[in-house]
Amino acid sequence: MTVSTPISNLGRHVFGVAALAFGLITLVWHDYKDWDQLRSILNATDGPVFVYAAAAAQIFGGAAIQFRRTAKTGAVVLGAAYLAFALLCLPRIVATPRIYNSWGNFFEQFSLVTGAAIVYARFSSAWAPETLSRVGRILFGICVASFALEQAIYLNATAALVPKWIPPSQMFWAITTTAAFALAAGALLANRLALLATRLLIMMIAIFGLVVWVPLLLSGPHSHTNWSETAETFAIAGVAWILADLLGEYRRNDYRPQRREIART
């Protein structure tokens, strides 16, 4: 099987820049997102080592994934880092399974794992295009379903993030974006209008970052949470973009008629 050259790389670049920014934020603050949840797992000796390792992995991986020759290496590094972050959420899930925040943190990190995995697979011959599209769509669809569920459970907190100047109300947009996440998850998992749903997700998540987190960042530049949430929001938008690039490439190459033709012969 020959390696197909990805037609669009915009998602990969957005994801890489966000990962690199995340690493720099971790390094500057000597802190990682959801650090409070990890303190109970990592002792005082391991903590600084974890922070520097996390920063180095994201900086190196985010830079390497930008270039075609090193994209696979960067994807492996980022995928391994984000998988480690996701797995570190599991003890809290086991300890308090009824608190969805821990589940939400896991799927946020796992969505980043999905993005890195898709980039790696697109630059290798290990996966057929149809299989890669299906697996990427399902994995990210599960994460998007978690985003919808988390917003629904913490609807008031979601509404509080919406700027008050946006009409008609904060709760309206909290409900609307929650429903949009749920619809997008259904489209991805059922493979119905998946490409359109993914493109709309990119727009919604990017707008969320620009309208919600960037103003909070500008008004509170000394807050680590504002920086890390901004970076993560655009990283997840990058993952959606990576999937959209994959689905768009699959549709343009139109592999299905080739399979039908092979089946007839």
What does this structure look like?
- This protein is mainly α.
- The protein has helices at 10-29, 35-39, 46-64, 71-87, 90-95, 100-122, 129-153, 155-161, 170-190, 194-219, 224-253, 255-264.
- It has one domain (10-258).
Structural class: mainly alpha
Residue windows where pLDDT falls under 50 for at least 5 positions:
256-265
State the order of secondary-structure elements, H for helix, E for strand. Answer: HHHHHHHHHHHH
Fraction in beta strands: under 5%
CA-CA gap between termini: 20 Å
How many β-strand stretches? 0
Q: Estimate the global geometry from the Cα principal axes.
A: globular
Radius of gyration computed on alpha carbons: 19 Å
Mean pLDDT equals 88
Helical content band? over 70%
Q: Main beta sheet, described?
A: none
Quaternary assembly: single chain
Which properties best describe this structure?
single chain, 265 residues, mainly alpha, 12 helices, disordered C terminus
Task: List the topology elements.
Layout (H helix, E strand, L loop, with lengths): L9 H20 L5 H5 L6 H19 L6 H17 L2 H6 L4 H23 L6 H25 L1 H7 L8 H21 L3 H26 L4 H30 L1 H10 L1
What is the structure about, briefly put?
The chain is an all-alpha fold and 265 residues long.
